[in-house]
């Protein structure tokens, strides 16, 4: 039995699979997991068959089934909640995975290299992409001020890094959202947080190696 096989399996979710350096990132993340006695599981693991298939509907649906199967095998998860495709919101597929793991009451932690609030991200996106600022709305009944985007949609999730359902589900599962300037540092902090949920924070502080 390898060292990692003795540790709890942790699903490594996020937009990482779409990045050019995905394999390199996952190797580094798995090493970081081992340092806190976790067994990192990449969405690529066990999906060798996909590489030989042509792109299309059936292949895409197969990937979704395989990813769900990996999550079923894992005891916990670490999720990247970075903004996706230059927009304010994170990868929608990752948001689905967070909900799926939350429904199974599995511990989770998150991480990001973008520490701006969701409001700031939306504002920056509309200013840069559409050259339109957010507008302030003061309801006549004296309730709290609301901010609207160019489509008159309310900018929600005040004080959070992402949509309240995304961040809320992670926090309800016991985890925090780690923020750092580089993704590996953010991931390491999140992995340590998750290991603390599984083993107890005192045990992790005393046994971390790496």
Automatic annotation (TrEMBL):
One of its GO terms (biological process) is deoxyribonucleoside monophosphate catabolic process. InterPro entries: 2'-dNMP_N-hydrolase, Nucleoside_deoxyribTrfase. One of its GO terms (molecular function) is 5-hydroxymethyl-dUMP N-hydrolase activity. Pfam families: Nuc_deoxyrib_tr. Signal peptide: none annotated. It comes from the Bacteria. This is Nucleoside 2-deoxyribosyltransferase.
């Amino acid at each position: 039995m390898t060292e990692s096989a003795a540790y709890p399996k942790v699903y490594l979710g996020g937009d990482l699979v779409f990045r050019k350096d995905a394999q390199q990132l996952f190797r580094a993340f798995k090493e970081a997991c081992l340092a806190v006695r976790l067994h990192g599981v990449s969405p690529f693991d066990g999906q060798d068959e996909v590489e030989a298939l042509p792109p299309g509907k059936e292949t895409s649906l197969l990937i979704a089934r395989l990813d769900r199967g990996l999550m079923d095998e894992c005891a916990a998860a670490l999720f990247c909640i970075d903004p996706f495709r230059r927009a304010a919101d994170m990868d929608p597929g990752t948001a689905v995975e967070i909900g799926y793991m939350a429904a199974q009451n599995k511990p989770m932690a998150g991480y990001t290299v973008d520490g701006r609030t969701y409001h700031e991200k939306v504002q920056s996106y509309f200013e840069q992409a559409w050259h339109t600022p957010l507008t302030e709305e003061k309801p006549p009944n004296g309730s709290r001020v609301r901010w609207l985007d160019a489509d008159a949609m309310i900018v929600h999730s005040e004080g959070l890094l992402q949509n309240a359902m995304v961040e809320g589900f992670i926090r309800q599962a016991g985890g925090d959202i780690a923020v750092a300037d580089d993704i590996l540092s953010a991931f390491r902090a999140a992995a340590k947080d998750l290991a603390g949920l599984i083993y107890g924070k005192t045990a992790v502080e005393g046994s971390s190696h790496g």
